[in-house]
Amino acid sequence: GVLIGLKAFAAAVLGGIGSVTGAVLGGFILGFTEVVAVALFPELGGYKDAFAFMFLILVLLFRPVGIMGDERLERSRF
């Protein structure tokens, strides 16, 4: 339940809230991030969900509207 919902929300945010295509792309990227992280660091396999959410935070630091989000919707930071 809850973890699946959080991942779906994270995928939508990563892709861009206003974009269905972006949400699908965000889901693929999050899944790919989990698989690559576990492949590169097998001893940290129990933390695969953490890798996905850390990647989400990293992307949103540089692109707050998501990958395919509409930049016109972004408010000024200050």
TrEMBL record:
Taxonomic source organism: Klebsiella michiganensis
Subcellular location field: Cell inner membrane
Protein name in UniProt: Branched-chain amino acid ABC transporter permease
One Pfam family, short name: BPD_transp_2
Family from the record: Belongs to the binding-protein-dependent transport system permease family. LivHM subfamily.
TM region positions: 9-30, 50-69
The keyword Transmembrane helix belongs to this UniProt entry's keyword annotation: yes
Position of the signal peptide: none
Keywords carried by this UniProt record: Amino-acid transport, Cell inner membrane, Cell membrane, Membrane, Transmembrane, Transmembrane helix, Transport
Membrane-related topology note: Multi-pass membrane protein
Domain of life: Bacteria
Keyword ATP-binding: no
Gene Ontology terms, MF aspect: L-isoleucine transmembrane transporter activity; L-leucine transmembrane transporter activity; L-phenylalanine transmembrane transporter activity; L-valine transmembrane transporter activity
GO CC, alphabetical: plasma membrane
One Gene Ontology biological process: L-isoleucine import across plasma membrane
